[in-house]
Amino acid sequence: MIPDGNQEFLAEFKHESQEHLDASEACLLRLTNNPADEEAVQACFRALHTVKGGAGFMSLDRIQGLAHAAEQLLDAVRENRVKADHAVCDALLTAVSRLRELTGALDGDAAPEGDDADLRERLKALLTTQKEDTDSYRPAPAPPRQEATARRVKAAADTISMDLLLGELLALDPAENAAIRGCLDRLQDCSQQHAWPRPATDALARMQRLLGTLADPATRSVAHDDLLEQSGQLMTAVAAADVRTTSAAVVAADGAATAVPDLPSVSDFCSEADELQAQAEAVQLASATPDAAQIQDLFRSFHTVKGMAAYLGHPRIEQFAHAVESRLSPVRDGTEAFTAALHAQSLAGIDGLRALLSDLRNHGVDRGAWPAPAAAAASSLGLVLTIPQIAEEELPPNVPRLGDLLVQTGKVTRQTIEDTVKVLKPGERLGDKLIETGKVPGAMVEQAAAKQQDLAAKAQADGFARVSIARLEELVNLVGELLITQAQVAQDEDIVRLPRAAAVVGRQARVVRSLQSLALGLRLVPLRATFQKMARAVHDTARRLDKRIDLELIGEDVEVDRTMVEAIADPLLHMVRNAADHGIESAAIRTAAGKPAAGSVRLSAEHSGDHVIVQLRDDGKGLDPAKLIAKAKEKGLIAADAQLSPQEAFQLIFLAGFSTAEQVTGISGRGVGMDVVRRNLERVKGRIDIDSTVGKGSSFTIRLPLTTAILDAMTLRVGSERFLVPITAVIEAIRPEPGQVQEILGRGRVIKARGRLVPVVALGPLFGIAGTDPAQGVLLVLDREAGPIALQVDELLGLQQVVVKPLESDRPHHPGISAAAILGDGRVGLIIDPKLIITD
């Protein structure tokens, strides 16, 4: 069974674990044939380590324990303490098979039969049987490099870069004493190989001395903090001596050079930190009183961010994450309860950390003025914020000095700056001195320092490829034009008559279609980020209104055009807040009505043909048509004698200035918001439908086109004109027999198709085009929400991909025409909207 609160990550963990286990199996099969394949050992170790870490986060003890046992045996293999013989490989393959069985059964009600204890003991036995045969050498604290034996040279050759070793060290759980010891041993090898300076070897020695206190649960937390601090000092000492192995090549024993990966980029760090914060927020939103396992997950998220920030040199993030971690530490240890105040404080910590990560992304360095959310959260955590400034000698060329920036404000004279510079002592900074002497206010120095950081980050930034939305849109448009040109070439009569040329054009068409798919794929983004924002909005609104609301998110991975995501972000936010404020009742009212005390809000997304359906459903009090009509008459929005159907009454909430709130609150009640919802949706050719029942709840369904760029369509001919219908709306085409189309009581023509009567609509008369007799034409049956219809046309010309060209809004046109397209022969075709071509 899966622990409560982790179900939403189950599918993702299962999928990723199966991929890692497949990769592990492939590596072990390679190792069976070649025991010296070090790359296979490293790849298998990384894969099982990832599975173990994910299982630990999900509290899947069986998977975590077995993966850890296999990982330990692999660690001994890669350190040459155990030989990768057939017995070892067979045991590891058995473990991988068992792990696949365990992960495959995660979504079932029952765990696989049997116990894994025998398999773990088998792995452990292999770990010890070969111990006496291996070299018993262990590095001395700091032996001279020239005294290294052949065994030491081999150990150094097997060592990966210091950066990766420190990264692995920081990722380990403080309780994994053996793994931490192994990392420190390999760091010792690295220090001998590259002749680290004395401060670095001293820091490493201090880290090794901490192993004893790490083994004791009572002192483990403090010892691990000291270990992280010493690792930062080690990195600084090695970097200062210019001997670090990052971006360099490690020379192996045979003289070959092996490239060493760079440090993780700012983008990689921010992405991983964002994921950790999303996990922490998910724990917070899952329950106001998380259990011990959830508290551990929450603590680990901040702890991991702190470790990575310390390793990569991001001081503000490290300081902030450490403060939140320290606040959570007593709760994790069981000495303090997880109160509502701490719940709010940790959520504010997540917001503050996100603000710092956003600032790091924008500036490239973790310095400068603190963002407001981070500063407020830091203050509540007791942090004393300083004004960090970049040293003058670290500034890139062409970046103004702090004094120049202060003079540019017009409030500080050049003479003041020069006089202050003259009295600066070694190690003092200009900004600090100006504040200390009272010559310049601290706020002004802070603003100048922040501006200097922005200019320095822009001067130093590299390795980022930011593409503007405008250029991306231009790329899609050009691909569309290429598609039109290719269609024109393919339909040219001279090309068709030449088989060789036709074959080349066919190949070109395939390439163009691939390019089109790639271009459109660049526009598609998942709804996950938008949906997660709604989760936070529901949580915050419920707390503010003192309500209990459970939010269910479905279809977060549905991908839509980025323009659609931007268009529905605000509408969804308004709708979610309205559901929490107006829809869901208080716990007392719900209990009195026989409902659960906690209200339910369900946000879902799914593909439906060439549309995306986004639905927001709640089990609140629902919309009362009579009350809506009375409110609209009271505000003068409709005539006093107006008679409206329930569906027409529901549409009143989209009128500007309309609100059913009894009083204005900080959330809603001023009559703005829902009119914005409809306006934004209409702008992207979307629509919203409402269904509601008094006392039971409401449902808001948004229909959005999947993309507004390129359409697969059926081309139709009526007279000399061309029309197009989305292929996803086509059910079938019928060549009617004489007498098959019938007149019903003078109200219209119908045809029987698939056991039901379908109304027949002649497309020509709708646009003033003379058409043919139904017996001579073709009926195209189209799917609609209101029921299928059969369009009478003269001829079906075939399938074609076309570039959608929107119609100008100020030009009148038939409501059943949604857009236009340029066809392969250069003519313009009108795109039919099946749901609006006729009104019921």
Architecture overview:
With 840 residues, the protein is an alpha+beta fold. 51% of the residues lie in helices and 14% in strands. The protein has a 6-stranded mixed β-sheet. The chain has a 6-stranded mixed β-sheet with strand order 12-16-17-15-14-13. It is globular.
Instruction: List how many beta strands DSSP finds.
Output: 21
The secondary-structure class comes to alpha+beta
Number of helices: 30
Unreliably modeled segments: 1-6, 131-160, 242-263, 387-394, 460-464
Strand content: 5-15%
Instruction: Give me the side-by-side strand order of the main sheet.
Output: 18-10-11-21-20-19
Task: Based on the model shown, name its key terms.
21 strands, alpha+beta, 840 residues, 6-stranded mixed β-sheet, globular
List the helices and strands and how they pair.
Elements: H1 10-33, H2 38-57, H3 61-78, H4 86-104, H5 117-129, H6 150-158, H7 162-171, H8 177-194, H9 198-209, H10 211-214, H11 220-240, E1 249-251, E2 257-259, H12 266-286, H13 292-312, H14 315-332, H15 340-363, H16 372-380, H17 402-408, H18 414-422, H19 430-436, H20 442-460, H21 469-490, H22 493-496, H23 499-523, E3 524-526, H24 528-545, E4 549-554, E5 559-561, H25 562-583, H26 587-592, E6 599-608, E7 611-618, H27 625-634, H28 646-650, H29 674-683, E8 687-693, E9 697-705, E10 710-718, E11 721-726, E12 730-734, E13 742-743, E14 749-753, E15 756-762, H30 763-766, E16 778-782, E17 789-793, E18 795-803, E19 805-806, E20 817-822, E21 828-832
Parallel strand pairs: 4-6, 11-21, 15-17
Antiparallel strand pairs: 1-2, 3-5, 6-7, 7-9, 8-9, 10-11, 10-18, 12-16, 13-14, 14-15, 16-17, 19-20, 20-21
